[in-house]
Amino acid sequence: MTALVACDLNDQQRELVRLIVVDGKPPEDAAKLAGYHPKSVYRTLRLPAVAAAISESIQLDLAAVGAPLAYRVAKSLLQDESISARVRADLSMKVLDRAGHIAPTRKDLAPRQKALSEMSRDELAAFIEENQAAIDKVEGELASRAKDVSYLG
Question: CB 19: neighbour CB atoms within 10 A?
Answer without folding.
Answer: 19
